[in-house]
Specification:
By secondary structure, the protein is mainly β. The protein has two domains: 2-68, no CATH class; 71-111, no CATH class. It has one helix spanning 2-13; strands at 17-23, 26-28, 32-33, 37-38, 53-59, 62-68, 80-83, 89-92, 98-100, 103-105. The strands form two sheets. A six-stranded mixed sheet has the order 3-2-1-5-6-4, with no helix packed on it. A four-stranded antiparallel sheet has the order 7-8-9-10, with no helix packed on it. The longest helix is centred in the N-terminal third of the chain and has 12 residues, at 2-13.
Length: 111
């Protein structure tokens, strides 16, 4: 009983998540995570490139990557950029413009 309480107390003192380096379908951080599940919003599938910094949490279904630490890409607050390791980009700007691989599309009615 005492040992169980000590183990539970030690676990509570630790971080709630691990930042681990992606290696294929897994990651290495405080622990090695094999066949890691990658979660995200419905309809978006992704597999981070090797060495991306994954945020790994423990769930009732096992360890799961809930995302990666964001790269600084020069976007402003409220903006969104989707990008691939191969260089494809879709950038949604606060001014209503959409930039796809460098080509700018203005919002309807804009000059």
């Amino acid at each position: 009983m005492w040992i169980s309480r000590q183990m539970i107390a030690a676990r509570r003192k630790g971080p709630a998540a691990d930042v681990a380096s992606v290696t294929g379908n897994g990651a290495v951080g405080v622990s090695e995570y094999r066949d890691l599940a990658f979660s995200g919003p419905w309809g978006i599938a992704y597999l981070p490139p090797d060495a991306a910094q994954a945020v790994v949490v423990s769930t009732s279904a096992g360890e799961t990557c809930v995302g990666t630490l964001a790269e600084r890409r020069g976007i402003g607050p409220g903006e969104l950029m989707l990008f691939s390791a191969g260089g494809a980009e879709i950038y949604l700007k606060n001014n209503g413009e959409i930039e796809i691989n460098g080509q700018v599309f203005k919002p309807k009615g804009a000059q």
